[in-house]
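[[Per-residue structure]]
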Amino acid sequence: MSWLPMLCLTALPHLGGLYGGYITRKQVKTWYPSLNKPPWRPPNSAIPIVWTTLYTGMEYGSYLVWKECGGFTEDAVALLGLNGLQLALNWSWTPIFFGAHKLKMALIKIVMLTGAVGATMVSWYPVNRTASLLLTPYLAWLCLATSLNYCIWRENPDGDGKEE
């Protein structure tokens, strides 16, 4: 059963990802195409693959920190708490952007998320370098996503997209 904590900690973010995918699915076919978007945006088909990979890597990192700290100990509280914060910010972005169509609020949220991931990386590094480095692709993706969110907000100030 020593694999159970690894499986649980690694699988956890996928639950929020599934909910986000549910919210996004309809909007990608209706609202999202009506928005002005930069030509360098990733294709919609890449998003589920990217997020599955990122969620798995980042939360395997949380398992490594959890293991290094001896479980949910006093030493792990702040480290895993930061991870929980970034995960909550992550999960809240999709309902704001795709669900409520609040582009500016989503931009604020993703900037906060990016900062929380950076703080998580810094806090994890002395404990488990591999765990910290597993967040690098996530941070890079967030930089791209933040830029995309900004460009979409800038080009669609009302958030409703173009009239069809």
